[in-house]
Amino acid sequence: MPVMSSLSQYWNIWRMSLATEHLQYKCYSVSLAQEFIQAQFLNSLTPEASLKPQDIEAALLANFRVGSKNRDPIQRAQAGLCLRCYVSEAILKACRKIDYLFGHTKAFTYQDLLPFVLNDDGKTAVILDLDQKTQLRLDDQGQLHPMTYKFFSVEILKTYQIDASSRMSLENWAYLQTRQNPELKAFLAEFGFQHLSDWALLNRVRPAQLERLSEHDRHLVEVFHVVYRRDRRRCHQPGAKKSADPSWEQCQEMINRLRNSCGIVSTPNELIKLLKQIAVQLKECDIWKSREPLEIYHVDNQSYVTRSDLPHTEIDELDIEQQEFLEFIYQQLQVALVQAIDQELGNRLDRLHHSRRYASLADRFIPGLQLYYTENKSLKEVAPLLGMTSWDQARRVLNPGDLLHQIRTRTIQHLLNLLLKKAQAKGFAALYPSPDYLTELAAQIEAFADQEVFQEAVEEIKAGKQRSLNSPYAQQLRTCLNDRRRREDYELSSLSNRV
């Protein structure tokens, strides 16, 4: 990516447009941010020089966050404004991804999510106080005032730890924080997307929801509250498992209490089944915003029956399972990638140590990859730095292209195994799936992994001198390389101390 093109994300901000009748979002160019970026990063560059995104990010964060009173607050605010521009696009992408995860049957779009998180005006000069906790507005006279309305983009920057051992990119951190935004989560909860367990739903049922239940179901919920809430208060401890299944003793006590109010429930299994059915009704209440009871009284049968206009329970449960499954895929891709990198690095080191030709170069494998992926050195540049005889020798020892290929293969295999077990547990796949099913699933996983991780990584390697090694693969590989280097240094230090 050309330097000017990559830098433009630091002076173009996505924000809500209030000029139209309906809330919309647009991309605005921020001249103040553009001038700051060009003054800091372009004017001092030679034509051959290139900028690493991680270096720009680190420099801007250092300028924005520094707590020294001697640092010019105007410069801090300008650096922060550049980062706010960058984060705005990450927030927009996060909302689109959330929209995708919830499928197409919901009653909202990603644009409905934007007002909760895309609230930066792109104009106000903002810095953090000395404790890095409070947003402060810088007025035209250079005076600082606490912000009465917090920008979510600044909250993301405030909590991002660039030096954390498990380095996460700022874009990924913005995605994580957007998903955890309290206002956005509250909005999604109105549509039933809280991902709460059945027991959590029952435990926090609201009076308006109770009114929509039948008298029989209300008694069940009330007895559940008496026993379950009481025991949760007694046993509450920090770090304890939340919303655990009711115990056999709790179920038996509920059954005894129910005998005098709404008939006999004979076994704990029967009670659990009835409570889970009520939890499904509560989800339907939230999703469909019904203001009428979910059951109506049938005169002929003299009993309550489920309304025929409601969606079938099985369909709603399947939708929720699929949403959780999609989120599981995104989470496990990262797990599979880390495992694959660690395993392949270990295997390559073992092969080098047992190789007649390259055993003497095995200890240069990790440093060589660090020069390639951290300092953006070509193999031709790496060879003399590590005492290798030629570019060809560096290629045979390091071979970043084949390393990427093998890690991709391992990642896809890890992910296939994880997803197959998950699909079988959820009933999406047979215990012994057919070869055609496995082939189709593997093809889908390959396409997903390539789109999310490996396609960009391949393009980086092919780019030559102009490459920008900042793909998710490159970032995770750097983290794993640094971890291995630290472990090796620690082991050598411990060995020296023993000697």
Give a written overview of the molecule.
There is one protein chain. The longest helix has 41 residues, at 313-353. The chain has three domains: 3-189, no CATH class; 198-311, no CATH class; 316-498, no CATH class. Helix 2 packs across helix 4 (73-101) and helix 4 runs antiparallel to helix 5. 61% of the residues lie in helices and 6% in strands. It has 499 residues and is mainly alpha-helical. Strand 4 (135-138) and strand 5 (144-146) form a beta hairpin. Mean pLDDT is 76; it is low at 1-5, 45-49, 236-241, 286-297 and 302-321. A three-stranded antiparallel beta sheet has the order 3-4-5. A two-stranded antiparallel sheet has the order 1-2. The protein has a two-stranded antiparallel ribbon with strand order 6-7.
Topology readout:
Layout: H1 3-7, E1 12-17, E2 24-29, H2 31-42, H3 53-65, H4 73-101, H5 110-117, E3 126-128, E4 135-138, E5 144-146, H6 152-159, H7 170-179, H8 182-189, H9 198-203, H10 207-211, H11 215-235, H12 248-258, H13 268-288, E6 295-298, E7 303-306, H14 313-353, H15 365-373, H16 379-385, H17 391-398, H18 400-426, H19 435-462, H20 472-498
Antiparallel strand pairs: 1-2, 3-4, 4-5, 6-7
Helix pairs in contact: 2-4, 3-4, 4-5, 4-6, 4-7, 11-12, 14-18, 14-20, 15-20, 16-17, 18-19
Binned strand content: 5-15%
Number of helices: 20
For the terminal residues, how far apart are their CA atoms? 51 Å
Fraction of residues in H or I helices: 55-70%
Number of domains: 3
Summing up helix and strand content along with how strands pair, one would put the structural category as: mainly alpha
In the predicted model, the low-confidence regions spanning at least 5 consecutive residues are: 1-5, 45-49, 236-241, 286-297, 302-321
Radius of gyration: 28 Å
Largest sheet: 3 strands, antiparallel
Order of helices and strands: HEEHHHHEEEHHHHHHHHEEHHHHHHH
Total strands:
7
What sort of overall outline do the alpha carbons produce when their principal axes are compared?
Answer: globular
Summarize model confidence as the mean pLDDT: 76
The largest sheet has its strands arranged as: 3-4-5
